[in-house]
Amino acid sequence: MNxxxxxxxxxxxxxxxxxxxxxxxxxxxxxxxxxxxxxxxxYQLQSALGDRKCAVTLEPKPIAAGYVLVFDRAExxxxxxxxxxxxxxxxxxxxxxxxxxxxxxxxxEFTEGVxxxxxxxxxxxxxxFLSNLQFVQPNDVPTFADAVGEWNISRxxxxxxxxxxxxxxxxxxxxxxxxxxxxxxPAILRFGPVKWYLDRGDIILLSSRDERLRFxxxxxxxxxxxxxxxxxxxxxxxx
Length: 239
Known about the structure:
Elements: H1 3-29, H2 36-39, E1 41-47, E2 53-63, E3 66-71, H3 73-76, E4 88-91, E5 97-100, E6 106-112, E7 117-122, E8 126-132, H4 144-147, E9 149-154, E10 160-172, E11 175-180, H5 186-191, E12 193-199, E13 202-207, E14 212-217, E15 223-226, E16 234-236
Antiparallel strand pairs: 1-2, 1-8, 2-3, 4-5, 5-6, 6-7, 7-8, 9-10, 9-16, 10-11, 11-12, 12-13, 13-14, 14-15, 15-16
């Protein structure tokens, strides 16, 4: 076998198998879209304040725009304006749920949280929650209304070291403005919270340096810092 023939054999042996494998690795890196049957269930759609609610059912039955979405249009559309344009639903990347129009364009997208809870932010409208009734009772999940207002930050079994107000005023990127009252503990002032938001039912305080304090509601109803150590803190409502 001459030198040219040897080179051709080596090329087919090593180069082409590598090229054939490349698309597989690229596909493996793409976020998975779940099967419709995994998400199909009865849900409750509600506003952030919990004052507007609507029962919806995601069915795995395919239609032209996606999959069948069942809700009482006469009852629900006046409460949630985006439902006027919604005709179907589709599974989304990373387990999200997309409400789509007749052209399959996304009207609202609910991203997956924990325990059957999903959340969507509609620009210029508000925050909405979609709760899978197989896994969660919506009234047990902290909502925007549970978080807005006055709070005290304290150490375990101690008096308040700082008072803050979690406002309803938007601060961009699903966040809201936070104000600190005078007389705060120096440690809290050094952290410098300026914004807040809800994440999977937890209250997150955000500093101007993008540092975060996470508080989760405990079964007994109080809110404590997660993780608790090394400096435990609690959020409580003023008396």
